[in-house]
Amino acid sequence: MDETAKNRVNLSSEERWEALISQLGSLRGKPELNEDDLRVDVLPLVKRLNLVQRFDWQRWEEPFPTFEQVNGLDLKSIVMQVTRICRMQRFGDGLLDMVVESGILLELCVAARELTKGELVPSLLTDAR
What we know:
By secondary structure, this protein is mainly alpha-helical. The chain has eight helices and no strands.
């Protein structure tokens, strides 16, 4: 774990949101992202904010949202989208790059922060379908 990642362990929820959104904002539109850096810098923050929760994402058939649809999603749907993205990145090379570069992961995280008022995301899923 690098020094920056170690320092993020003790952050408050609001500080984690700020770090995550700042990191994603700086990567939006940036071609040729390093997926290893994303795994080290972005994914730990996503997980510590409880945006990744257990559910059968492989059977979930909802399409990825468009930018226009993100603001209409409820928190549970956002968590399901983020969880699917984070789980799928293990199996599909380039997915994480695509959602970070396009800004869709940033939009999902901004919407989640607004809905939680900067707090940790509550546990919402118990094998939801």
